[in-house]
Design goal:
With about 450 residues, the protein is mainly α. The protein has 19 helices and 6 strands. The two termini are about 30 Å apart.
């Protein structure tokens, strides 16, 4: 029995199964991090003379053997041992009797928080890389000279450019990149040594463990460490939810625009129908919309799990694990496929110009032109509205309007070339929607710095 002499009988099998839930399966992801944390912990125990050199050496050799076996698929978790921590300890103890000393001055409470932070650090970096990959795809769209529609209330509003549309999402995803960096700094703090809830009487060196694991500092208050499980996970899911919300908006927009024939995706990003031969569906966009909802639900769940708990460690917090892992998988998969799909997206310039003209998208430009000629804007707005109503009745586009007729109606002198320039989506995009190339190197440098520190850890 893992918890020793306090109990006179073993717990029922159904109780262990219920308590562990998905732990045994999910904890497989944490095996390398659990071993990494144990290696650092044992080295610290040796430094503090809590373990002798021979004891530490035997344990470290066993840990490295377990890690190698894991990489070769020879070490898997036994559900009856509850979690990754006890599985690793049991295997180390099988290899050396000194393994029984490995758990000195730590608890599974601080151990699982450590494992999760080590895992999260690497996943934060991976998601940051995928965000930059998506931004590169958007950058490639920015190189295409093409008009593009902007909508309000799902109705044509004004002409913009594909470059301007792409840049808007680029900038929003870069805010998420900064959120990830900020989260990384809070996750990059060592919790190990907090033990169950009140620290330990052993003379340990938490700063040394932090250094070995590449942490920037130590989370000093042991009670805070124990209570804080779920906090960083919730913050992670908030950032992922923000990312998925943006991806869901792009998804909906591409569905909307493709139905109008303004954009299209190649066959390799679409599927068909089992009964309707003509169908070509970009199913992944619909699935991405739904998965963004799943992630928002997971965020709500992870916050609710933490609500109203007494301070210290509570097993409620283990239920944050499946929510964290599945949300990270959803976000990574969604970012990857969207980055690829956007590179392959095509636009139909003729269809876009027709959409803009049919929607009288340059009406605001006409009102502004009249205002620049001295007509009060509110009056210019009303005059332009009357002109649009007339055009709709006659079935003509704004671009076909005569400057003399508008001059007479507005009481100002307009030249035909001025009017044509204001009412042409192509002319508007040339003068207004300038975008600058994105300097991705500064963001890539931040990722390289984080990866460099983590890559060194596998030699602890």
């Amino acid at each position: 029995m893992l918890w020793g002499g306090r109990f006179s009988s073993s717990p029922k099998e159904k109780l262990l199964k219920y308590n562990s839930g998905e732990n045994a399966q999910l904890d497989s992801l944490l095996i390398p991090y659990d071993i990494q944390g144990s290696i650092a912990h044992v080295k610290m125990l040796q430094k503090q003379k809590i373990l002798s050199a021979s004891e530490a050496g035997a344990i470290l050799s066993a840990l490295k053997k377990v890690l190698q076996n894991y990489k070769e698929g020879k070490f898997t978790l036994n559900p009856s041992l509850e979690d990754v921590h006890m599985n690793v300890e049991a295997e180390v103890t099988r290899l050396t009797p000194h393994g029984k000393k490995m758990h000195t001055a730590r608890s599974r409470n601080d151990q699982v928080i450590l494992d999760t932070r080590l895992y999260m650090r690497e996943e934060i970096i991976r998601i940051a890389e995928l965000l930059l990959s998506l931004c590169k795809s958007l950058e490639s769209l920015k190189q295409r000279s093409s008009p593009f529609p902007a909508y309000t209330h799902t109705r044509i509003a004004q002409p913009i450019t594909l470059s301007y549309w792409s840049e808007s999402f680029q900038q929003s995803f870069l805010r998420d990149f900064e959120r990830l960096l900020s989260l990384y700094s809070r996750a990059n703090i060592n919790p190990l040594g907090a033990c169950a809830v009140a620290g330990t009487g052993w003379s340990i060196d938490r700063a040394y463990t932090a250094k070995l694991l590449g942490f920037e500092g130590v989370q000093e208050n042991a009670h805070d460490v124990s209570t804080s499980r779920g906090e960083l996970e919730g913050e992670m899911l908030f950032v992922l939810a923000e990312i998925m919300i943006k991806l869901s908006r792009i998804s909906e927009e591409l569905i909307f625009l493709s139905q109008k024939g303004l954009v299209s995706l190649p066959d390799e990003y679409c599927t068909g129908s089992s009964i309707m031969p003509q169908k070509k569906n970009a199913d992944f966009l619909e699935i991405m919309r739904a998965r963004s909802s799943r992630l928002i639900g997971s965020l709500t769940a992870i916050l609710s799990i933490q609500k109203g708990l007494i301070s210290g460690y509570n097993s409620d917090s283990q239920e944050t694990k499946p929510l964290l892992f599945s949300s990270i998988d959803i976000a990574k998969g969604s970012l990857e496929i969207m980055a690829d799909a956007l590179l392959s997206m095509e636009t139909d310039k003729a269809a876009i110009l027709k959409e803009l003209e049919n929607g009288y998208a340059c009406a605001t430009e006409l009102a502004d032109l009249l205002a620049k000629k001295g007509v009060p804007f509110r009056s210019a707005h009303e005059i332009t509205g009357e002109i649009v109503k007339e055009c709709i009745k006659k079935g003509i586009w704004l671009l076909k309007l005569d400057a003399n007729a508008i001059s007479k109606k507005a009481g100002v002198k307009l030249l035909q070339n001025e009017l044509s320039s204001a009412l042409s989506p192509d002319k508007t995009r040339e003068t207004r929607f300038k975008t600058a190339p994105l300097a991705l190197s500064q963001y890539e440098g931040k990722i390289r710095e984080m990866k460099k520190k983590i890559n060194l850890l596998w030699g602890v």
